[in-house]
Description:
3-stranded antiparallel sheet, alpha/beta, globular, single chain, 7-stranded mixed sheet, 10 helices
Amino acid sequence: xxxxxxxxxxGLKPYVPGEQPIDMKYIKLNTNESPYPPSPxxxxxxxxxxxxxxxxxxxxxxxALTQKAAKLYGVSPSNIFLANGSDEALAFAFMxxxxxxxxxxxxxxxxxxxxxxxxxxxxxxxxxxxxDDFSVxxxxxxxxxxxxxxxxxxxxxxxxISLGDIEKMLQTNPGHVVxxxxxxxxxxxxxxxxxxxxxDNLLVVHTCSKSRSLAGARLSFxxxxxxxxxxxxxxxxxxxxxxxNRLTLAAGEAALDDEAYYIQMRQKIIGTREKTAxxxxxxxxxxxxxxxxxxxxxxxxxxxxxxxxxxxxxxxLVRHFDKPRISDYLRxxxxxxxxxxxxxxxxxxxxxxxx
Length: 355
């Protein structure tokens, strides 16, 4: 830290992303990326002339992509905001809607960026404990009169809440925004996007990083009523008007044109998830039910940090969080069947050695 850093940020603890190591080749099961490549249409579209246009600025409105997304999700183009990954979408939402008068509320175990944004933007917030089984007690949010931010399915637990409970939050907090972060919704949940037509205080965030194999492209969609989207767009034009690059816009358009491909890949991931969960349970692991592309598992009486280190030594990366309540758990991204078999074999070896 230099002597020039503003005092405002001296105590800021930034979000720590999952490892992206280059020291050796790993089986990467730590950042919830898809194990499958983008649609062939994406690769074809990017290489078909878009690269030559990089000398030109991209369309700041992302008009063609917005039109395709509106058609796919059954909403108006004015109900969609395009963001450079869901992290940017979340940042703009915190900036636009949270302040000392409209504070934030989210679970104590959830996406680690939520408290970071509150610290960065000087937003008061509360963290509401999950139940012992890691589920959200939705009644804690009814009539709380704060802006609510919920990942659904939750990360890193994989648990999900119902649309009925989301509606009750919207109905009992009419003066505050309810933001549903649906990064993993395509792996078994029911999206709240359809509710934006009924509730003017609902924002729903989707990402193309998980179910559409575009983590490296950085693209997400925000859905809400016209007024909320205009508010977020005001943040963008005050920060970075060309927030989506030309290649990402092209990749997003092609991805939406091949929804059938991605549905097939999601089904493969879901099938592998269920098979892996059963195999882990047979080994003695315990975990909450997951509707995401990862499992959140622990082996009773065994250190999660130790398992993480031993797996890394075996060439397999998983995510470990050194935090109260979850320090013995590992978040395991669902890879291919072959990758998950390698994980299971490594765990069997580690457990057999009693390490």
